[in-house]
Design brief:
Helix content is about 50%, strand content about 15%. The chain is of the alpha/beta class. It has a six-stranded mixed β-sheet with strand order 1-2-10-7-8-9, sandwiched between helices. The chain has a four-stranded parallel β-sheet with strand order 5-4-3-6, sandwiched between helices. The protein starts with a helix and ends with a helix.
Length: about 325
């Protein structure tokens, strides 16, 4: 049954952001299709504005806040969401203050600064940055634009599901990298909401898999986080995040991959497809490769969520 509230939010988001974000290609992959004996498509959000799907949710929420009269916004990010907010703020002519972890990649930091946003570096991961940003927003009475814990942001990410179905309907499975869960919540809720019998597969790096462990435990828990190539999905899950309930409803399967699998998937993909991807996109690729034999004769989409990768990281992957 269609969740009319969410369906209408996604449709409204699509209308609101369509002039500011790209309708990204859904590209057939002969290589991945041949090796898996499945019909494999790649949703190329690495070609999105600012190089990541985050442009969708950030633009949708920033425009809503602008219409409400706000002229400065605060957010936290591991990098991609920060670029998206900075870009949206620049387009709207408003100020943005972005809290980032000290571990943010140089490439993502430079992109945020290019758009003219003010930056604060704090803590070791995106969870630390979120706490600091929320505290600042509360103390200054400014709106906080969450990377994932917001229905308008989730609806913006859900426009990817709308685009997938416009090009290829039906779809048997979609593989999606998971951090805070906004992306998979939006896509999964839209696809299942319109009646798709589509398996929603959550893909996480072993080194930082907050949502995976929350789903297993049935509650959000604090876990240890280690460094991962998938910096876009790294960090703690905010206590009380609405995405946890969304994910409990829409996620059919959750897969963990290790750093070696991510490196192998990224290197092989870039050799075969001649396009840049970042670590989080490599997570979705690695997860599919680990179970590909189970998807023979099925139509699958792998979401390439971003292409923002630092030169040093890219060199390390290619030389591995």
């Amino acid at each position: 049954m269609i969740d009319q509230k969410f369906y209408k939010k996604v449709k409204a988001a699509h209308h609101r952001i369509q002039d500011d974000v790209r309708f990204t290609p859904l590209q057939y992959s002969p290589t991945l299709s041949n090796q898996s004996n499945a019909e494999v498509y790649l949703k190329l959000e690495n070609f999105q504005v600012t190089g990541s799907f985050k442009a969708r949710g950030a633009t949708n929420k920033a425009k809503i806040l602008y219409d409400q009269g706000h002229r400065k916004i605060v957010t936290a990010s591991s990098g991609n969401h920060g670029s998206a907010v900075a870009n949206a703020a620049k387009t709207l002519g408003i100020e943005a203050l972005i809290f980032l972890p000290n571990t943010v990649s140089e490439a993502k930091l430079k992109k945020i600064q290019f758009f003219g946003a003010e930056v604060q570096l704090v803590g070791d991961d995106s969870g630390d940055a979120e706490v600091a940003a929320r505290d600042y927003a509360d103390n200054t009475n400014l709106p906080y634009l969450s990377p994932y814990n917001d229905e308008d942001v989730i609806a913006g990410q859900g426009t990817i599901g709308l685009e997938i179905l416009e090009e290829k309907d039906p779809m048997d499975a979609v593989f999606i990298a998971v951090g805070g869960g906004g992306l998979i919540s939006g896509i999964g809720s839209y696809l299942k909401g319109v009646g798709q019998d589509c398996e929603i597969v959550a893909c996480s790096p072993e080194n930082s898999a907050a949502m995976h462990h929350a789903l297993q435990a049935g509650k959000i828990e604090q876990i240890e986080h280690s460094q991962t190539l998938s910096d876009g999905t790294a960090g703690a899950l905010e206590e009380g995040a609405i995405t946890f309930n969304y994910c409990q409803t829409v996620v059919d399967r959750s897969i963990l991959v290790n750093e070696s699998q991510i490196v192998h998937a990224m290197k092989t993909f870039m050799d075969q497809h001649q396009m840049l991807i970042e670590g989080a996109a490599g997570v979705a690729l690695a997860a599919f490769e680990s179970v590909q034999k189970e998807y023979e004769k099925k139509r699958v989409t792998i979401l390439l969520c971003g292409g923002n990768i630092a030169n040093q990281t890219l060199l390390k992957v290619l030389q591995s």
